[in-house]
Amino acid sequence: MPQTDSALITNDIVVFGLIAATLGAIFWLASGPTPFWKKFFAWIPALLLCYFVPAFYNTVGLIDGENSALYNPLGSRVLLPAALVLLTLSIDLKGILKLGPKLLFVFCAGTVGIVLGAIVSFQVMEWIHPPAVAGDTWRGMAALAGSWIGGGANMVAMREVYEVDATLFGQFAVVDVAMASALMATLLFIANRSEQIDARSGADTRALDEMKERMAAYEAANARIPTLTDLMVIVGLAFGLVGLAHAIAEPLSAWFSANVESAAQFSLDSSFVWVVLLSTFAGLMLSFTRVRNLESAGASKVGTVCLYFLIACIGMQMDFTRLFERLELIAIGAIWMTVHVLVIWGAARLVRAPIFYAGVGSMGNVGAAASAPVIAAAFHPNLAPVGVLLGTVGYATGTIIAYFTGQILRMMAGQ
């Protein structure tokens, strides 16, 4: 895509090198090489910097992100579906079922709380401050639903499906980080007092004790160091399926456009929507095969690398100076998160589930596989894989559920 001459760097290869170096520096600093950086990243998530630093480059004129070819087609059409494949193939549905019906019930209640929270927050803000939900706000909310049901890949997928403006997406990224960070801080505080809370509520913790032992055995049996063959298979599988998804999506979207009258209303005439759905479905189907063993060799880590490059490419398109123009979006996020917490807390109380179920179920939705293990480990180190299992479920369901949540919000917005 041609670029303007206003930016200092106009060569996309040079821009790619700059972005790669920036991401590497952020993650190295996030590892805590000094006490200062350890404290800094305890408050500022690396994810947010991966978005905002490229946005800063664009804002000051160092690069021209809007006209760069890095985001489209490389980022959105290649890296995103590859990330979806690798993040969903690791799902162990059988293992999740063994965790017990109460945990699954609470987790699903959390997902319902996210969908309900989107509807309630939109309606409440329409009553008290209509400009907050006017225009394309519903599109940004659909993207946020993708993040809070699944994760970053699902948020980016919804960003593409509903064509969310880069600045609006950045504003909702702030809401995402602010609300998720507040929730995590609260859950970490609760984790240190979980035994007292469970004792007072009369929760049944027998299944939780068995789970600790089972997860410890699973983790010990499956960990291994990836070989070159493992990594080549992971990369080949991911990008091979991306190519297949594109090959199928083009004629499929054309068929829906020609034969289904309401195809445009539900974005079924968009080839990209089908690429996202097919990539997610392919990864989910592979999770039932031996291919899922690639997770022990780092499949999800490779997928996360693709995801972070994609997030940086999205940040390149944003004008940083416009980021805080709509602080009322924070109010939407606060109402939304409150509804989610109330629903999942009520579900846990209903089935006398341990507070751990509510904590990891909530973060399994809002924080997905990146944050849920942190909360799970805060309750007990051996429970971290539970957070991974629940978090990865969101990657499979987040895109679909967030898509339909977006359709509801679209109707509420009258579009």
UniProtKB/TrEMBL annotation:
Keywords: Membrane, Transmembrane, Transmembrane helix
UniProt superkingdom: Bacteria
Pfam families assigned: DUF819
TM annotation in the entry: 6-28, 40-57, 103-125, 168-191, 231-249, 272-291, 298-317, 329-348, 355-379, 385-405
InterPro entries per UniProt: DUF819
PANTHER family assigned to the protein according to its UniProt record, in alphabetical order: DUF819 DOMAIN-CONTAINING PROTEIN, PROTEIN, PUTATIVE (DUF819)-RELATED
Protein's UniProt name: DUF819 family protein
Organism, as annotated: Luteimonas yindakuii
